Predict the 3D structure of the following.
Amino acid sequence: MKKLSTISWQDFKVLPLVEKGAYFQGEPPHTLIAQQFSRGQLESLCTLATKIKRINKRRDGANFLKTLLSDKRAMLYFAQPSSRTYLSFNAACQILGLDTMDVRDSKTSSEVKGESPEDTVRTFSSYVDMIIMRHPAGGFAERVAWMLAHTNREIPVINAGSGADQHPTQALLDIYTLERSFEDAGGIDGKSVAFVGDLKRGRTVRSLSWLLTLYNDVKIHFVAPEPLQIGSDVLALLDAAGTEYEVTQDFASVMPLADAIYMTRIQDEWDVEGESRAIDTSTFRIGAEHMDTIKPDCAIMHPLPRREEICTQIDNDPRAVYWRQMRNGMWIRAALILSTFGRQDEAHRYYDEYKPEE
Ligand code: NCD
């Protein structure tokens, strides 16, 4: 096992992503990048998420779950806008009886007094047993985990979205949603997944496309206007993993082939001077008129929030799984938090004993 406490920041920050991942598996485990996961870990998290969901359905089960982390506290540090990710983490903590505190705006923390972001996070670590954080700076969550590993209070860090580069827990809930959508169709192996929209700056796509390399014979279609196309760094990772992909602007040709279509919004908060306004995105959307072309059992996904890329008319089509996808986030995040504290076996034992129904 590789230890963050034994490597310098200079040496660590230049490591390839897959090598970095090995440093996050220690004690405590951190969740920072998609590249740290194995397929086995994804499968265990999905299984645990489903068990938590079923246990939680009954009052005695819900009461049991609330004892699992009743001795722990977590800090939700969200220095970037968030609705779903914040709420689902908060709900996941509540399910497990884990108390939370939050800072949702750096203006309300001592950063305005000139405190460094590192000191701010180190301060949080004095009061809590886990930090769940979203930050506009790519790589900052890694820096925090590294920094805490060099103090006498290394607590687990979960990356709830960093810059335009990583959103590992969104990728987990996306995998959970795909697993459940393809439950009766042989799972994710062999499926064709289309990513559509702003693939250049969409961190959810960057994290999820890596997780798909852990499955066999998956084909990825990256569908975007040229200036918003997926980064060459992601393609290099897919090449190294031997995952097949296509890069195209032609959504109409991909629609009838895809087993899952993952839509994304234009991430114009990263524009320097409104440059995305000049990009024609009109063909990178799904409207009611496309539903006959899309496969009858396709999973239409979206990390949300959406704009016009999915028309609301299709919201009640059984293929539109984005609302379910959002709720899945709560269960998989509960599974992740419980596993981070190493207490998953208690949930497994309860499940085996009481066998809650579906
Ligand atoms: C995404 C994000 O923050 O990256 N939202 C989310 O976490 N569900 C996607 C987005 O903002 O477009």
